Please model this.
Amino acid sequence: MIDSKKRYILRFFVYGLSIEVIVITILYHEELRKVLIKMVPALTPEYVAAIFGVVGVLIGALLTELYNRINQRKKRRRELISEYSELTNDFLSLIKKTERAYKSNDKKEVEANEYESYNLLSRVNNLNTKTFDVYSNIWIRTATNRLTESFKLIIDELFKDNSKIQKLHSVSENWIKGQIEYLYGLLMKGAGIDGSVGGHPVWVGFRKVNVQDKENLKFNITAPPWEPIVEVDFQEKLDEETKNEIIKRNLSKVEDLRCQEHGYAPHVVLGGKGLNKVDITVLGCCKEFAKAVEMKLMKK
Model:
């Protein structure tokens, strides 16, 4: 990640500069002493030795402070991973309890769960703020912001229309789990935890950004997974009327489709150089559903 590399470069620069000062002081202390005495005749060898001692202490304090800060930040980052895990489990538990309450027509429990959701939303917002405080990486910031918005969208839907509750539980669970899995990978890498089994880190900072990358880098959710959507992202500039016509025509083909396993609606991005060559990208749950959506879109 670019931000992490910048931090490492800065850290090595500070370390290198400090070590260089120490080495120069040790190797050329006699020459430095003579220069200081010539510059300030009043300085005695004892004063010069004291100056070197103070400089050494300051450098040592600087390195110690830097080391402690790096370790403290790593610790805070690792704590975030546990907090996200706990919050996600509590959130999914709330959805399940509310689903059960709707089925048994227990209005009191539904009301209690709604009050509990306010506490969960407060925890979500606090966690988002903590993440922004210890991470400057754009991929992590967008991922956690999108997760926060996802929680809000689900809770709004959860207590607004109980006719959708069965489908909503299944879709929400898959949606949140997918986002958490993606976010965990970013958080672990940022905290210095190697989550890979075998292999080695690969630098991908200069690779071409694809449609899924663009989606992951959005701070806000375009649409929740239970709502179908078609977007256009052509290199060729299109007027609004043409865009709206493309969206309307293609949305009508797939808006009734749902993934049988995960309950997702189609999220489609139509892109490419222009209308003569259209690339279809289906964002969402699985390859099987993506193929079904693509086949539907290609039918005239």
Remarks:
- Confidence is low (pLDDT under 50) at residues 196-204.
